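Course assignment 3, question 2. Fill in each field.
Student: A.L.
Task: Predict the tertiary structure for the chain below.
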Amino acid sequence: MDTFDCIWRLLSPSGEYVSRKDACRALWGALSVTKQRQIYWYLREAKKRGEQLDENPYFAINNCNPQPVNWNGRNGINDQMKTQKMVIAKYNGSYGTYTAGVARLFEMTDVKPLN
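Answer field:
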């Protein structure tokens, strides 16, 4: 399956925005595979949390600035430690506590297992 089909299904535009498919496909195709994965993950997580995504899929993709969730000091870290492999890793020059999957997705450095 094409990765564009995955993001299009996730965004599931309706009405007038369905016509943006070709523009979205071109935008998506211009991104690196790593950036596509980060955007998909970020938008999927936002949707899971019930956040409203931009109705226009082009802007949902284009304006997305995916950032990893640093669990250091956050509520829920103990639950994360029970269910996820956690690591301490360096991202954008700072260390934080992340799930192992997110550390891989955001290509973090100096990754050390936490649990």
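Instructor remarks: Residues 33-48 form the longest helix (16 residues). The chain has a mean pLDDT of 95.
Grade: pending
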